[in-house]
Design brief:
Number of strands: 13
CATH superfamily of the largest domain: Glycogen Phosphorylase B
Strand content: 5-15%
Strand order of the largest sheet: 3-2-1-4-5-6-7
CATH class of the largest domain: Alpha Beta
Oligomer: single chain
Distance between the termini: 24 Å
Largest sheet: 7 strands, parallel
Radius of gyration: 22 Å
Number of domains: 2
CATH topology of the largest domain: Rossmann fold
Number of helices: 16
Length: about 400
């Protein structure tokens, strides 16, 4: 198959990294894969895998596709005669549906690894989500083809190291320091609340533990988080919390960690490195990942929602308990690593996605049926740009009338 993988940006983020790694896996299976996205920092990863890259005009998470972007994608799909568009997240999905799908009949597979799938993604589209709770919710809403592929992780590149000394020295960690590491985007949505809680918790841990909280990442909340870290450090009269900025390759951060804090793919990478993992969520949610709690996080994409109370004291106690009972670390690490290999390795995910792609191509819809399904889904209702909907909708109807 000739597969066009489309992303709304190439910035650091779990969904984008997953898209590139799965594309590389599909290429190894013999498929021709083209990555189409606005230029960004992850272009380096695309090139490292030897994938063909075609730059796209900027799209953006908060904005719907434009008529121009739809036309550009349609022209590319026509020129390259693609068999399937694998679109990641809602912006890219809508662009693919309005353009190559409706104009040319190119099948579209949508992958949405966000916490929730937007209702305006057409219900008849085949959809991949990362956890069973969301898949069940989408089926209840009438989606006909929903697949679960747990967000994959490259378990070869992300693996336990025999000597963590060089990585720990990179982050200024002393031999007796307890390193709790967070690798994340410093974003307001999903992340900010938990990061502020983690910084506050670091200030509550008994100084005898020698806790160091290392935060790897960048984003709009960095100044606020740095100010909170400065306050904790000033009270402790030593550097307890360190913001190191963004790393294109954060593997040294995971290798240096004694404990990984995180949600989603970040938590999974901590597991792949064989580290104890504390799951971060929203509204004060923190929980230790164990064999007992794992089924919950496979349903909830390694994420949770708390009761809204201040969680800093609870997280501080959790870290203190782990520090005092280090005999648990090997078992927790081995459990995480074995789960990574069996449940969400890149090979497992790639094989699953390849099978779904073949199924989608085999079931491509004729023009009249595509138009009927789109209109019956109520997709135009509530879409952000009424003028865009009117203009592209009219264009789609003219094109499908011509066959």
């Amino acid at each position: 198959m000739r597969i066009l993988t489309t992303l709304f940006e190439l910035s650091m983020g779990g969904s984008h990294i997953n898209a590139i790694e799965i594309s590389a896996g599909l290429a190894k299976l013999g498929h021709e894969v083209i990555v189409y996205a606005p230029d960004g920092e992850l272009r380096q990863r695309v090139e490292e895998f030897g994938l063909e890259y075609v730059p796209a005009p900027p799209l953006g998470r908060a904005h719907p596709p434009t008529v121009a972007s739809v036309r550009t994608l349609t022209a590319l799909a026509r020129e390259r005669r693609v068999d399937l568009i694998h679109a990641y997240e809602w912006s890219s999905t809508l662009e693919a549906v309005y353009g190559p799908h409706m104009r040319l009949g190119v099948p579209v597979l949508s992958t949405v690894y966000s916490v929730r799938v937007p209702r305006f993604i057409p219900r008849y589209l085949p959809l991949i989500v990362g956890f069973t709770n969301e898949a069940d919710a989408q089926r209840r809403r009438g989606r006909r083809s929903v697949h679960v592929v747990v967000c994959p992780v490259d378990t070869d590149a992300n693996a336990p190291v025999t000597d963590s000394g060089p990585a720990r020295r990179r982050f200024g960690l002393a031999e007796g320091d307890l390193a709790a590491v967070v690798v994340t985007r410093l974003a307001r949505d999903l992340k900010r609340e938990g990061l502020l809680s983690a910084i506050a918790a670091a200030g509550l841990v008994d100084p005898a533990v020698n806790l160091r909280l290392i935060i790897v990442g960048d984003g709009p909340c960095r100044a606020e988080l740095q100010a909170a870290a400065d306050e904790v450090n000033a009270r402790a009269e030593r550097e307890v919390v360190t913001l190191v900025g963004q790393l294109i390759d954060p593997r040294d951060a995971y290798a240096a960690a004694d404990i990984v804090l995180g949600m989603g793919t970040s938590a999974q990478k901590g597991m792949a490195f064989g580290k104890p993992v504390v799951i971060q969520g929203e509204q004060g949610y923190w929980d230790l990942l164990t064999p007992v709690t794992l089924p919950t996080y496979l349903r909830q994409n390694f994420y949770g929602i708390g009761d809204g109370d201040d969680s800093s004291p609870r997280l501080a106690m959790m870290l203190t308990d782990l520090a005092k009972d280090r005999s648990r670390w090997p078992d927790l690490g081995a459990f995480g690593r074995s789960t990574a290999l069996s449940v969400f390795s890149n090979q497992t995910a790639t094989d699953r996605v390849a099978a779904i792609c073949a199924e989608v191509v085999a079931r491509r819809q004729p023009a009249g049926r595509r138009t009927g399904l789109l209109e019956s889904s109520g997709w135009f209702v509530g879409f952000r740009t009424v003028e865009f909907s009117r203009r592209v909708g009219a264009s789609v109807r003219r094109a499908t009338a011509r066959g």
